[in-house]
Amino acid sequence: MAIWLLKTEPSTYSYADLERDGETMWDGVTNNLALKNLRRIEKGDLALIYHTGDEKQIVGIAEVVRGNYVNPEFENEKLAVCDVKAKRKLPSPVTLSQIKATPELVDWDLVKNSRLSVVPVSEAQWKMVQTLSER
Predict the structure, then answer these.
(1) pTM, 2 dp
(2) d(CA 89, CA 61)
(3) Could you say which of 3, 7, 23, 90 has the lowest number of CB atoms within 10 Å?
């Protein structure tokens, strides 16, 4: 099982929307490196859901229920998607400011490559996010 961070603009599709819908196709990724990461996502992986825009915070956890596949809405084999379902909201959101202020997280691609919408999460990063969320 791998862990990922998936970014979304909450005014377009928020974690609350995912909770309401239960499950959704995670699409809209166009950056080549983000697509490369998305193609590595498999059923059973977990994903931290990160709200971009004014919020800039990790708000929830989702489970991948269908690994990467070609987006059926377009005739472009490069546009990968996956299906996720809401798992649980974090006890407290973890802000980008908190992440940048945590020495163990400063080398994370979330910080170093902020334009990337699909980011791998190491086990250590996963544990630190959970710790920050519980404070």
Answers:
(1) 0.96
(2) 6
(3) 23
